[in-house]
Amino acid sequence: MMQTNRLDGADDAFSLDHSYGDPYEKNLFQQAVYSHGDPSDSGEFHMNPGDLIALTTKNFNGTYFGENQATLVYGYYPSYKVKPHPDIFVTAKQDNTQQFVHEADDED
């Protein structure tokens, strides 16, 4: 029983919506804090500090899968080398292209 290990087992609960591709959830973006150079041949990509990463999947081994918006390359990257970037999301234009929107821009 989880109550024997913790006061409230709900503290360890988290949503699986993004992991399983909830179509109504906003795209999650992260910003690279550390460079990730010379990736191994395990499907990882190169990133520099400041690169914007579109998160696709969180893996339980400490890696994430996503697209580096600077290089437009998909791959795995270490989760500890990025930080959340919650104020950016993507909207679709009428010509089926994407544009980045800052939530701060909506206040005008």
Q: Uncertain segments of ≥5 residues (pLDDT<50)?
A: 104-108
Global structural class: mainly beta
Report helical residue fraction.
under 10%
Outline the biggest β-sheet: 5 strands, antiparallel
Q: Concise description?
A:
With 108 residues, this protein is mainly beta.
Notes on the protein architecture:
- The protein has 108 residues and is mainly β.
- Helices cover 4% and strands 34% of the residues.
- The protein has 1 helix and 7 strands; from the N terminus they run H-E-E-E-E-E-E-E.
- It has one helix at 2-5, and strands spanning 28-32, 52-58, 63-68, 73-78, 82-84, 88-92, 98-102.
- The strands form 2 sheets. Strands 4-3-2-1-5 form a 5-stranded antiparallel beta sheet, with no helix packed on it.
- The radius of gyration is 17 Å and the shape is elongated.
Q: What's the helix and strand layout?
A:
Blueprint: H1 2-5, E1 28-32, E2 52-58, E3 63-68, E4 73-78, E5 82-84, E6 88-92, E7 98-102
Keywords:
108 residues, mainly beta, SH3 type barrels, five-stranded antiparallel beta sheet, two-stranded antiparallel ribbon, 4% helix
